[in-house]
Amino acid sequence: MHFKRFDQARPLLTLGVVIAAWLVLPVAIKTFMRVSFYELQAPITVSASYVRSLQDFWSLRNQSKKELIEAGRDLARINASYSLTAQENDKLREDITRLEDLLRVPAQTEYRFEHARVVRRDFSAWWQRLTIRKGSNYNIPVGAPVVFSGGVVGRVTAVHAYTSTVDLISSPTIRLAAVVEGDDRPMSYQGGINPTFGPARGDVEFVPIDIFASATAPKRLVTSGLGGVFPPGITLGRVVKLEPSTDGLFKTGEIELDPMLSEFIEVTVLVPLTTD
Question: Contact 157/167 with Cβ under 8 angstroms?
């Protein structure tokens, strides 16, 4: 009878011994084991991503000539629009540089654009992150901002040999300074507790009391540039709800994020250009 009870409790005892052994291990050994395990399974994840890209390639090869001609025509129009925008951007950069020299204002941080394919998404109620297919092999630094066509994606939180982990702006681990478009007063944005399959949302605090927004009259929330991580003016989301905070001095609100956060397949990492 005693042996039968012991056999039933053996899995729990084994689990307890493993947990106790893990708790007493030095931090350096834990870190080494965690990184080694990640690097061991990373090739499998990356290989699956390349297979998906190959499938997409062959699916496009099966498109008819008429569809390809129409896609090429649309792409030519977009390229023409982007070409004009690039010329305007160069002119604006020259004006900014001239004004910085006249006013003796420190120059803004410059970046190089590193485009990367999304390998995997990891969404839960407590964190929302994704893995991209570039890491230390492309000199991706920890803390680098990540963007896409709709605005801010998040921030690089871990860099490995061939992949990097990005915490999305919908994750509670992300907090940054923001402003409402057309207003220069900073406020605090933070990701919220989001359902796994629900729309992504965030929270905003310390909103001036004279700012109003609602679902029928939302306001665009953008990065402020404070802190030197994200360039100013990049879209975070839309302020769809504001109400007075408990102290009555400010407002708190709800931010509706871009639904493409759970769908895009490529992002751009802004790698700061350090000048020594």
Answer: yes
Q: Which two tokens stand for residue 167?
A: 């915490």
Give just the sign of the alpha carbon dihedral 89, 94, 95, 99. Answer: positive
Helical residues (DSSP H) of 175-250, grouped into ranges: none
Parallel, antiparallel or unpaired: strands 235-244 and 151-159:
unpaired
DSSP state of 110: P
What is the spatial distance between Cα 176 and Cα 156, in angstroms, rounded to a whole number? Answer: 14
Angle at Cα 259 formed by Cα 206 and Cα 67, nearest 5°? 150
Top-confidence range, 96-105, 106-115, 131-140, 189-198: 131-140
189 DSSP β-pair partners: 176, 204
* Backbone angles phi and psi of 119, in degrees to 5: -95, -45
Give the per-residue pLDDT at 110: 80
Q: How many residues does the chain have?
A: 276
Q: How far apart are CA 238 and CA 210, in angstroms?
A: 17
Q: How confident is the model at residue 272 (pLDDT cuts 50, 70, 90)?
A: confident
